[in-house]
Amino acid sequence: MSKDYVIGVVGATGLVGEMIIKCLEKTSIPIRKLKLFASEKSLGKKIKFKDQEIDVLELTKDSFSGIDILFFAVLSSLAKEYVNYARNKGVLVIDNSSAFRMEKGVPLIVPEVNGEDLVYHQGIIANPNCSTIQLVVALNNIHKEYKIKKIIVSTYQAVSGAGKDALLELESQIEGDTEPKILPIKSNIKHYKIAYNVIPQVDEFLDNNYTKEEMKMVYETQKIFKDPSIEISATCVRVPVKVGHSESIYLETEKP
């Protein structure tokens, strides 16, 4: 007899959490119960799942008993704070943040590319940065056949990648409100209008003059392809599109 699973979503009221719930509605995985978690400010909210209205619960370190599979769709800082509480309860964690992607023993999975690596998990499975996923899916068969040695990639990333507040800001700017408060990142002293504009910065700049987003693409691609020798240079740009990233890719291979 097949098992019915208790599945949880942390960050259920955010853009990514909402998409995970929509995907779970369509999955063939037998779900006995869905538990939804968010911050204290979301207490009292209800989210529709199939024919149910599910209460959003406050996330605490004691939230994880009885859950089989738990999706984390929150900031890295929150994932680092709570994921190990879940794993120690025997929960299989699938984490959307960058918190554990580069850790040894944590498989970084794109099912179409390296799904076989799932067997190596030790309670945590990480999924890559959104732009990395697009890149490796496009290049996987080329790498297998010809062995890629160099990648130069430019991304044109939709505002949805910066979260729900950034998406609302784009919409308000299109309607005439020109006061930027979020992009390129909330913590910046100066912000830039995204409507009818492009911003050549996604995430914070590092000492090497690349952004965190750009270096994620470098290290994650090398890990997924199991090949740290691939030379990669990435340039990530935010564009005034609501949903849907694009990329231009130049590559060189060892075999002609």
Q: Would you kindly provide a brief summary of this structure?
A:
The chain is of the alpha/beta class. Helix content is 27%, strand content 24%.
State the name of the first-level CATH class of the largest domain: Alpha Beta
What is the 3D shape?
A: globular
CATH-defined architecture of the largest domain? 3-Layer(aba) Sandwich
Seen as an oligomer or otherwise, the chain set is: single chain
**Main sheet attributes: strand count, strand direction, barrel closure:** 7 strands, mixed
Description of the structure:
The protein has six helices and ten strands; from the N terminus they run βαββββαβαβαβααββ. With 256 residues, the chain is α/β, with parallel strands linked by helices. It folds into two domains: 123 residues, 3-Layer(aba) Sandwich (Rossmann fold), CATH 3.40.50.720; 123 residues, Dihydrodipicolinate Reductase, domain 2 (2-Layer Sandwich), CATH 3.30.360.10. α4 runs parallel beside α6. The N and C termini lie far apart (51 Å).
Question: Can you lay out the helices and strands and say which pair or pack?
Answer:
Layout: E1 5-10, H1 15-26, E2 31-38, E3 46-49, E4 52-58, E5 69-72, H2 76-88, E6 92-95, H3 111-114, E7 124-126, H4 130-146, E8 148-157, H5 164-174, H6 212-224, E9 231-238, E10 246-253
Parallel strand pairs: 1-2, 1-5, 2-4, 5-6, 6-7, 8-9
Antiparallel strand pairs: 3-4, 8-10
Helix pairs in contact: 4-6
